[in-house]
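so my prof wants the structure for this chain in the tokens format not the other one, which i didnt know existed until like an hour ago. anyway here's the sequence
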Amino acid sequence: MIAIFMATLGWAFASVEGDAWLARIDQTARIETAHVRLSISVRDARGRTSARSIEIWQKGDDRRLVRMTAPSRLAGIGLLANPGGSLHMYLPNYPPARRVVGSKRADAFVGTDFAIEDLTRMAYAGSYTADIAGQDGELTHLALLSRSEPSPRDPHLWVDAGGVVRVVEHRDDEGTVLRRLTLGDIRQVGTAQLPHRIEVTDMKRNRVTTAVIERIETAADIDDAVFSVTHLERL
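here's what i got, hopefully its the right format
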């Protein structure tokens, strides 16, 4: 009984420290407003590549609009994240915009290896708690657990001493890695440290998606109306 109590107490302390890491991660990546242009390349198992372009508007910690701008056949497809965890997806060929709930947030976004959740998550601390799972060289390994629906599929993070996430892994129930995100080309943007290159590897499909920030603007304010379903549905 004492052994069980001590083990539980040890996990609790680790969890408190892990949660402090999540708060630091969120603060390190935080920007008040941003308009980002992403260039995306998808390479399949045969070495064939296809290109995408995405624009992202963000305001505060809980509002983000993601819109695909190229190629033309996909232009207008978008995601809208708003306070309270509300998430909508809009497909121009299948209006109106629809809520994205539950496991659908893990679906791939329009032929890329980014999950919908990858593109709409703005913070970790509110949605996850964390346990320190070990040290990998200079990176701290955090095992995350959802506050609402804990699962073996919850992400694992590797974080540097500055609080910048360098690797994210998503695993199946047996612990096999399904997707790995590698974040690099870290640059200072205001007070934040942000990756300007993200490589996503889908282990099952042997497919790699690479996203590069072409431009990021943080000075101008963004009208609240941008973060509405009406604006999401506007081509």
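also thought this was worth mentioning. Confidence is low (pLDDT under 50) at residues 1-14.
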